[in-house]
Design brief:
Number of helices: 10
Number of strands: 0
Distance between the termini: 64 Å
Shape: globular
Oligomer: single chain
Strand content: under 5%
Helix content: over 70%
Length: 210
Amino acid sequence: MKKYFTIAFWITFYGVNNGITFNVLASLFIISFTESCCFVIPPDFLLPLLAIGKPLGIVIFLTLFTTFASVVGAAFGYFIGQRGGQPLLKKLFKKEKLQKVETMFQKYDVWAIGIAAFTPIPYKVFTISAGAFNLHFIRFMIVSIFARGTRYMLIAMISFMLLKNKTPDEVIRYLESSDFKILTLAIAGGVILLFFLYRLITKSRNKAMA
């Protein structure tokens, strides 16, 4: 049982097999789905493993599959929130987190979901809250697809370039290093910065047209 909690096991599980097996897809779907609505284990740490010893086409497919599973989980979280309403939110999450999420929804509407995809706040808080606050579902899904897809694809493609010629031992050292943490934070910061620039440009245009 202990082996399932080691990086070496998951590198072997995802990295050694060049094909797309049922076990790989099933575990990837479960982790990605539940992270968006139930648990907090993100698939981010799996994406670099998927880049080990695989052709680019398979890496892209698995990344898109991860996005699909995450967005399906986000939709499920939305409906949980819609059925349970704000009383459910108060039972599931701390007051401080809910206040932050509510403020972001009031300020950015569904675009808060885009920001949430890159913040340390668990994504499930936003997906369930989106349903409880009755955000527009179609726009919620579109932003979720864009935000999660961008995040996962950036991590996967950069990892593919960095890890395609590395051995499993070298990959373990990379995942345990500060470089991987800095990479994730840099991607998040860059996307959030682009979002705020977009908002600034949009506001400037609206004021000019008023």
